[in-house]
């Protein structure tokens, strides 16, 4: 093979497999056992202005990272490969009132991959927690989650562990075409409000081959979720897989198309749950819910459909109850092939 052909062949190879330019965090001064917040921000700045595919690499090792705003729009696909353990500040004061530790927004074609662990170091915050979530009116610390994906499209999270988040692990909000595969969530079963993945106003989300063990709902489906697939997921400990709560606010959007398939719930409080507030609006609908091949091992309440969900007496029970319409609910019964052990 002559030299020119070799160049053409390797060019075609790069074009075909999209070999991305690699930006190692060390190039930006990020080294193990140090705070890489500034190094990561600089690497992101370079990645986001690149006109060809880029991969930011954080190799094995332990790093500290404060709140970071991973923001687009960017020009080309970006992969962030994390093989190290990334630690959040354990002290709530250091995060300066922010609600998301690693905050992704206004992006498309993002991949977050690797064997890495994002450790929210929530233990101190769990100890201080009193009462329910912020809206309950009880004294509560501000919500602070490990990952926020806000208005992010065509994204894959592959590998990666979310550990000991201060509150929720992951929020997926306003996203389209978003896949979690081989993802892991871990926190102790008594850690308060550590929901696994909470979804809202998002379409075409897939949660596949994922293990979730945490202190609250493994997956919770908020309003405006459309075409969600949760498949081959293990949940437990935790509070199970929950649709809702829905119907508390008039601005909420319908939920359409949820498939929960081949999931195992182990030692959870609830199995699959639908919870809706009784007040308003009566126009909200939940359509096309499918639960198939669900195995429950030691689950206290395997199936709960609560249309009068009303914690902390937030609603006036004397009012005529206006219930959220659960349409095609027969499909729950038809497809609920539940095995309890
Ligand atoms: C994501 O997709 C939605 C719907 O197609 C679109 O309106 C929005 O602009 C996209 N956002 C980004 C950051 O690409
Ligand atoms: C969804 O996102 C993935 C990952 O970026 C991409 O490969 C795929 O083409 C997208 N699918 C659609 C229908 O846009
Ligand atoms: C069901 O999910 C488990 C993982 O929880 C996986 O090992 C198994 O292959 C899945 N079965 C099918 C038929 O996909």
General description of the model:
- With 341 residues, this protein is mainly beta.
- The protein has a single domain (5-335), classed as Single-stranded right-handed beta-helix, Pectin lyase-like (Pectate Lyase C-like, 3 Solenoid), CATH 2.160.20.10.
- Helix content is 12%, strand content 45%.
- The chain has 4 helices and 22 strands.
- The protein has helices at 3-17, 37-49, 123-128, 330-335; strands at 21-24, 54-58, 62-64, 68-71, 78-82, 85-87, 100-119, 145-163, 170-173, 176-181, 184-186, 197-200, 203-213, 219-221, 226-235, 241-246, 255-266, 270-276, 285-297, 301-306, 325-326, 338-340.
- It has a 22-stranded parallel beta sheet that branches.
- Strand 1, helix 2 (37-49) and strand 2 (54-58) form a beta-alpha-beta unit.
- The longest helix is centred in the N-terminal third of the chain and has 15 residues, at 3-17.
- The radius of gyration is 21 Å and the shape is globular.
- Residues 12-17, 130-141 and 327-335 have low confidence and may be disordered.
- Bound molecules: 2-acetamido-2-deoxy-beta-D-glucopyranose (3 copies).
- Residues 232, 234, 262, 264 line the site of one 2-acetamido-2-deoxy-beta-D-glucopyranose.
- The site of one 2-acetamido-2-deoxy-beta-D-glucopyranose (NAG) has 7 residues, from strand 7 and strand 8.
Summarize, please.
This is Pectate lyase superfamily protein domain-containing protein. It comes from Trifolium subterraneum. 12% of the residues lie in helices and 45% in strands.
Shape: globular
Number of strands: 22
Mean pLDDT: 86
Number of helices: 4
Small ligands present: 2-acetamido-2-deoxy-beta-D-glucopyranose
Estimated structural class = mainly beta
How much helix is in the residues? 10-25%
Secondary-structure element sequence?
HEHEEEEEEHEEEEEEEEEEEEEEHE
CATH superfamily: Single-stranded right-handed beta-helix, Pectin lyase-like
End-to-end span in angstroms? Answer: 63 Å
Organism: Trifolium subterraneum
Subcellular location: Secreted, Cell wall
GO molecular function: polygalacturonase activity
Signal peptide: 1-20
């Amino acid at each position: 093979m002559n030299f020119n052909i070799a160049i053409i062949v390797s060019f075609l190879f790069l074009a075909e497999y999209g070999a991305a330019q690699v930006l190692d965090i060390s190039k930006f001064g990020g080294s193990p056992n140090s705070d890489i917040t500034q190094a990561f921000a600089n690497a992101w700045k370079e990645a986001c202005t690149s006109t060809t595919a880029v991969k930011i690499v954080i190799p094995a090792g332990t790093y500290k990272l404060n709140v970071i705003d991973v923001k687009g729009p960017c020009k080309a696909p970006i992969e962030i490969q994390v093989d190290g353990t990334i630690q959040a500040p354990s002290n709530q004061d250091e995060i300066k009132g922010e609600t998301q530790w690693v905050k992704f927004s206004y992006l498309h074609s993002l991949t977050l991959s690797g064997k890495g662990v994002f450790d929210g170091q929530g233990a101190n915050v769990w100890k201080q927690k009193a009462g329910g979530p912020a809206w309950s009116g009880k004294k509560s610390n501000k919500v602070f989650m490990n990952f926020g994906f806000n208005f992010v499209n065509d994204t894959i999270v592959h590998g990666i562990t979310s550990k000991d988040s201060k509150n929720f692990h992951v929020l997926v909000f306003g996203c389209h075409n978003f896949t979690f595969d081989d993802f892991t969530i871990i926190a102790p079963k008594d850690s308060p409000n550590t929901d696994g993945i909470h979804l809202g106003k998002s379409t075409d989300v897939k949660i596949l081959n994922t293990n979730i063990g945490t202190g609250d709902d493994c997956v919770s489906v908020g309003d405006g979720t459309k075409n969600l697939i949760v498949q081959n997921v293990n949940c437990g400990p935790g509070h199970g897989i929950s649709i809702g709560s829905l119907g508390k606010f008039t601005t909420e959007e319908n939920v359409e198309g949820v498939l929960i398939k081949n999931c195992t719930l182990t030692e959870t409080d609830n199995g699959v749950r639908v919870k809706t507030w009784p007040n308003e609006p009566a126009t909200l609908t939940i359509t096309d819910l499918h639960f198939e091949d669900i195995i429950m091992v030691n689950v206290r309440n395997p199936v709960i459909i609560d249309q009068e969900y009303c914690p902390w007496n937030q609603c006036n029970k004397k009012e005529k109850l206006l219930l959220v319409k659960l349409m095609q609910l027969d499909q729950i019964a038809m497809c609920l092939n539940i095995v309890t052990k």
